[in-house]
Amino acid sequence: MADGARAADAVGFGTGGLSLFRVGGIEVRLDYSWFLIFLLVLFGLATGYFPRFHPGYSTAAHWAAAAVTTLLLFASIVLHELSHAWTAQAAGIPIPRITLFLFGGVSQMAEEPGDPRTELRVAAVGPLTSFGLAFVFWGVHLVLDAFASPLVSGIALYLAWINVALGVFNLLPGLPLDGGRVLRALAWRRTGSLRRGTRIASRAGRGIAVGLMILGGLEIFAGALVGGVWLILIGLFLRGTAEAGYQNLVILQSLEDVEVSEVAIREPVTVSPMLTLQALVDDYFLALGYRAYPVVEDSTVKGLISIDALREVHADAWRSTLVSEVMTPVSEANEVTPDEPLSQALKRLAGAPTGRLIVRDPNGRLAGLLTKEGLARFLEIRRVLESDSAAQVGRPVPGRSHRAAA
């Protein structure tokens, strides 16, 4: 239902949950809150919708129909999000993952679209996909209605209408909904400012959120407790997300002149390439608790070793396997230079499997480590120290530790 287009999400925020699969290099994840809405939708369909509109069937049949419908509903949401992701990728915008969560899905972009036209295309394709799915399910309903049971054809009918509803709801003109991003694109084109366009769409999103909460309160007073509570929860979510979207854009724009060296962890703990995996586990992973370490030999950085690399080697072989045999060698994909603009490094950090990039100087020496966790802390400090109207671009954050975890 809601779409995220914030680089901050892609480099450290909202990445929890379970990984399902990858499609075209895009990771599809489930936020843990998804299981709650899945069970609620399943229960509502099995005990409410299908018994009401398709009586005469057994309880088992209603539950089976509800399970199939719920799975196809979330498949529709995945296709909605993938349509955003594929359109963004075609425009050159990296999409590391999409996440299904309590109220729908989020496509997490590694950067904002570069122009209003791209923003408009990426935003509009989602509702169009939902309407297209509605048309397909309606056609399936007509075909099944001729020879299948009403319960089976009713599944397709429900999916047709729910996709129409999803498309219409997403067209509401306020962030973080697709309609809000359409509004942002139009305002961006008119004003020439992405920031002003985002502010306009964010305010519209907050207005829609308040309207939903008021409507939810009225439904509760009218006796529709469950529906009213859901509208209030959705309104609260949209209001918070709309405000966060604008604040994140302000912060990221304030980082345009920040260099990697100002954010990177200095003097991280390192390991030798000649260290055995057993020693690495005992003396580093278990003793220090960090998930990855730069591999350094004779003051030259050789690569990066993460705890995930241990999965490639059986535990019985840890004593005879060296770090150099399983480490990820340093390359353009996992390294940055100290003076590289942070805005450029974010793209690589978003796609880094370990959530870390090696900061290497021109002589091949380790100059630090850029991590998602470190960036998240840096952004949080900037939120506290800087106001929207007086962001100081590139100001070093005082008090950072010069030796920290990998």
Order of helices and strands: HEEHHEEHHHHHHEEHEEHEEH
Strands in their spatial order, largest beta sheet: 1-2-3-4
Taking the sheet with the most strands, its summary is: 4 strands, mixed
Quaternary organisation of the protein chains:
single chain
Shape: globular
Fold topology:
Layout: H1 7-10, E1 18-23, E2 26-30, H2 33-53, H3 59-90, E3 97-101, E4 104-108, H4 116-147, H5 150-170, H6 178-191, H7 194-221, H8 225-254, H9 277-288, E5 292-297, E6 300-306, H10 323-326, E7 328-329, E8 335-336, H11 342-351, E9 356-360, E10 366-371, H12 372-385
Task: Write a brief structural summary.
By secondary structure, the chain is of the alpha+beta class. Helices cover 55% and strands 12% of the residues.
Structure, explained:
With 406 residues, this protein is of the alpha+beta class. 55% of the residues lie in helices and 12% in strands. The chain has helices at 7-10, 33-53, 59-90, 116-147, 150-170, 178-191, 194-221, 225-254, 277-288, 323-326, 342-351, 372-385; strands spanning 18-23, 26-30, 97-101, 104-108, 292-297, 300-306, 328-329, 335-336, 356-360, 366-371. A four-stranded mixed beta sheet has the order 1-2-3-4. Helix 3 packs parallel to helix 5 (150-170) and helix 7 (194-221) packs antiparallel against helix 8 (225-254). The protein is globular, with a radius of gyration of 25 Å.
